[in-house]
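Reminder to self: tokens first, then the designed residues, so the page reads top to bottom the way the pipeline ran.
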């Protein structure tokens, strides 16, 4: 596997994951009440706890995308 192949892989991995992150953010920002109602039917959870869990998940996902997709892509772009 060449550096260019890995660079292209991490580039597309970053684009797809960042797109998923943005889609999730837009859905949560525009339909937060609907998402909360849907999840509160399944699990007995307060709105405060739901918001905490949701934003913690989004923050964790963002960190994972940066560490495992964007930083390797940047590193391969520098050495490539």
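Designed residues (80 positions):
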């Amino acid at each position: 596997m060449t550096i260019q192949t890995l660079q292209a892989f991490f580039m597309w991995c970053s684009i797809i994951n960042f797109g998923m992150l943005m889609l999730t953010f837009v859905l949560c920002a525009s339909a937060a009440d609907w998402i909360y109602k849907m999840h509160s039917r399944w699990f007995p959870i307060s709105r405060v706890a739901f918001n905490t869990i949701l934003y913690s998940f989004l923050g964790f996902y963002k960190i994972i995308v940066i560490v495992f997709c964007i930083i390797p892509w940047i590193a391969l772009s520098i050495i490539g």
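Residues 47-79 form the longest helix (33 residues).
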